[in-house]
Amino acid sequence: MFTSVIKQIRLDPMKDFSRATYTAIISDLHLCEAEPPNLKHPLWKKYKTKEFFFDKEFADFLLAIEKKAQGDCVELILNGDIFDFDSVTALPEKPIFRISWLEKKRGLNPQEAKSVFKMDHILSFHPIWVKSLREFILRGNRVVIIIGNHDLEMHFPDVKRTLLKHLALPVEYLDNLRFNDWFYISNQDTLVEHGNQYDPYCVIEDPTAPFIRRFNLIEVKVPFGNMATRYMINGMGFFNPHDDANYVMSAGDYVKFFLKYMLRAQPFLVFSWFWGSVTILIKSFINRLRPSVKDPFNVEDNYSYIARKANATPRIVRELKQLFVDPASSNPVLIARELWLDRAFILLLSLVVIFQIFLFVETVYDTSLFWTFIPILIFAPFFMFYSKSVVSNVSEFKEPYERTLSAQGLIAGVSRVVYGHTHLALHQMIGPIEHLNSGTWSPSFKDVECTQRHGKMTLVWIAPNQEDGRDAELLYFKDHSLKPY
Fold it and tell me: Could you give the domains of the chain?
């Protein structure tokens, strides 16, 4: 039955998207529910409050790109992480499914009925965004939605249908909206990917078969980075997940941050961190071992369908898949280091050993408990040295590799590759490939008070040049107009 539902969507006719004159690419909107104001702790998840919704700006942005296209059709590519399912913690009032203790604490599991609730819940907070996108399509433009790592649950057919229900498009306009599994080739000159497939913390092992079976339930296979949002960041409301600098810190910075912002709100933060980290480690490793759900009689149809939506061939789909990095979840030690569990284990083990030695010595000599502090003080410098030597690798994958970009260009037959994912707007030549990153529209701030915004509402704009080709530029939207970045 699960396969037949997918097949039903695949048999839908598709309009020819192979040619485009004007293309606008944005990514990482991270649309989510609104966090209710916390009167006792006003900085708690402040970045998620309605104060920072940009729905009206998005509506004005759509009008601006239409104006820039001078009345021609615009191809709008929403390049991944448009919706943030991982950050939704709301629960239905009258659930039709079982909700576990962990889900009540950190959000619903990525199962179809629960994902439909989350999509419906997110869109209920963004009526202006939905209305403006609907009107944009009705004016003759087309929209391509590429699935990223935070909106993986859009792989479920009913989640797509939920978005279509909110858009309420007439039948004749349904083909102006397309959902792509992880990449899209625009006008045969630009490869567009979210970019998470080259980040081991957020890579989807097989976006052509993204589901796993847990007992008798079908789930999306969620990578380690998303689990960190679900089971850690969701319970630590002073860390903004849209900017790495908010949660990738040194031990000293964590202590200062805790004393300044979290001591009163979360005095037992260490326990929230510990059980959240252990949950992430166990779940990510178990998910890694679970095989993807595949229908052996539908594999070739699957590749052909994905290729057709992406203006590609099945061969391109297979070859691009070979460039994916190995997931971090196959290395539990690496995950433990990123979660600081290695340091916690070393510290606890050392304290246990010291205490056991003290108990043994006490059976022979009458000693004071005070003497246990001497080996602790001796051990402390070595522990601090080890802690400082462990550096997070999260930042390492913010820059694309020339080898990967070159291979992508050769496989797809393009000289331009556009990513999102990193939230860092870029336009540069890397080897023979023109590389752009569309940045982010998410509420990304450098500080907890949300006063220092990180970045602008950036986009990649591709338009015809005088030599019968197309040129790309990085722009940002502000005050109803598009400006060079």
Answer: 20-338+395-484 (3.60.21.10), 341-389 (no CATH)
